[in-house]
Specification:
The strands form 3 sheets. Strands 4-1-8-7-11-10-9-13 form an 8-stranded mixed sheet. 19% of the residues lie in helices and 29% in strands. 35% of the residues are buried. The protein has 4 helices and 13 strands. It has a single domain, classed as M1 Pyruvate Kinase, Domain 3.
Length: 197
């Protein structure tokens, strides 16, 4: 399958887990990612320097790396503005969704579970959609963020590391088709509606 949109890696983000106040409780989270420059080593459990606060629901081989389409950022910025949240210098920086990789040219409906994103120095296999938790509401700053992700389908997707190596912002990548049974959008929709029933 060929895509009319060029696919590239706009930004790479990592974070160490830290405690933040959520609903009056001190919660450990690594959702607040910051951009890193230059090549970042990638191993089986994810990016060097990135940490998962709760390995029972984040991280591991099947959720080693989280990717998110940059195309959705305008949607979230609009919702934040409607909620009365002003971003410093009107910026909503990549990594705000908690993603390790901010991609362009590849949306949830375009990518299938089992597809491989082949970068110049590593290969990552699409494993599953992200299912947001209450920490996402806190990170976004308004209490309906999880619901908005469920309704929009703008969930991004997790990747497992097929071939360790390095990743760097600015790299292009190609999509190598896998089994092609479910798109990320289809898998996310089935999970969301299962929880809503």
């Amino acid at each position: 399958m060929s895509y009319s949109r060029p696919m590239s890696l706009l930004s790479v983000q990592i974070a160490q887990a830290r405690k933040v106040m959520i609903a009056g409780r001190s919660i450990l989270t690594a959702i607040h990612k910051s951009a890193v420059h230059g090549p970042v080593p990638v191993a089986a459990m994810g990016l060097q320097g990135d940490e998962q606060a709760d390995p029972s629901v984040h991280g591991g081989l099947e959720k080693a790396v989280y990717a998110y389409p940059a195309e959705h950022y305008a949607f979230w910025q609009t919702l934040r503005q409607q909620a009365g949240l002003a971003d410093i210098d009107n910026q909503f920086n990549y990594g705000a969704m908690g993603e390790n990789l901010t991609l362009t040219g590849l949306l949830e409906a375009d990518v299938w579970v089992g597809d491989v994103l082949r970068f110049p120095h590593c290969a990552l296999r699409v494993s599953q959609p992200r299912e947001p938790c209450y920490k996402f509401n806190a990170a976004m700053g308004f209490n309906t963020a999880v619901k908005e992700m469920a309704l929009s389908g703008f969930c991004g997707f997790y990747l497992r590391v097929d071939e360790p190596g390095t990743l760097q912002a600015g790299e292009s990548f190609e999509l190598v088709p896998g089994a092609r049974n479910d798109t990320i959008a289809q898998r996310f929709q089935s999970k969301v509606f299962k929880h809503l029933r």
